[in-house]
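Q: What would this complex look like in 3D?
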Amino acid sequence: VSSDEATLVRRSLRGEAQAVQALVDRFQTMVYGLCVRLLNDRHEAEDVTQEVFLRVFRSLKGWDASRPLKPWIMGIAVNRCRTWLARRGRRPEPADYLHDTVAAPAPDDSTELVREIRAALAELRPEFREVFTLYHEQGQSYEEMAEALDRPIGTVKTWLHRARLEVLERLQERGMVHSEP
Amino acid sequence: MNCSDFENAVQRRLDGLGAPGRSELDAHLAHCPECRTLDEAASRLEEGLALMRASASMPPIGMRERIVRQALAERRAGLQRRRLTALALAASVAFAIVLSRNWLTSPVRPPANEVAHPSLKKSVRDAQLALTSIVNRTAGTAIDEGRSLLPVPTSFETPTLLARSLDPPVRTLRITSSRVGESFNPVLASAKDAVQFFLGDDRKTEDGQEK
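A: Here is my prediction, written as structure tokens for the whole assembly.
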């Protein structure tokens, strides 16, 4: 754990607005991105992101300073998303991502490719979707994911490999692969 | 290299760890169309993931400020709640201390609404007095009533005559009075016995031995 993180947490616990702001700044993109991907709804993702940070600040006193902050926060985010989805009582609807745009204009099928990948993610089992998003979109390591999801590294690795194979299979089925047989 | 090895190589590639020698992979791909498709699919996935990372969902404007405001407000509310709790606790402790000090220093008194019980001795004496008073009053009433029934002389010419005229009624009155008194004798005797009995018991109770 960096001393910078520990200091930030200490200052946040003292109620320093600047520290609280810095902490939110540091993790909000990551948390919000994860929530968008897991919930497939930007408005719900915003609500859940707020819930996540409020929970983080409430629980900050109990944070184990010997462990990195990021997986701890991402673990809270994953749990909040699961709770939200359970409350919603239905699978995430792959609709919101249709409004996503790629960074650059796509003369080829890249927009469709991204859409297919997102649709494939929406079809995955929740734990597969979580690890895929954490790894490929949020850049989390296996160790960090294991920490966040409170699962052994081997389990997390297996989930990710299976998730990839399912996505690859869908890309093939949907004609996104142009190789000759 | 077989298909399973190739699949592992694809996973390593997607992990960003690189793949084993390209020549080995190419040799396998040359005669395995399934793995060629898998290889191509992995390339498309890498391409798509790069695009997704580039177009990552950015947090909405103002979300950070809302979170910070809410977090600080919640913290302030928590502090205030803790202060109030501490204050209430301190007040309770202070009240308990004051109460216990007063209780320890003040003499033990019966509650204001509780009437002190009279002693047995006093009760018996009161009963004795009451009984005597009833007996005297009853006797007095009987005498008065007897007197009212007697004939009253109309005139008294001389003292002798007056004495003579008064003699029968006085005698009757004395007899009546003595008989009324006698009629109460058994009651009085019983009352006296009872009083003596209680007094004797009372003494024994108070002193621990009979006097």
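A: To summarize the key features: Chain A has eight helices and no strands. Helices of chain A lie at 3-13, 17-39, 42-59, 69-88, 110-123, 126-137, 142-149, 153-173.
Q: Very helpful, thank you.
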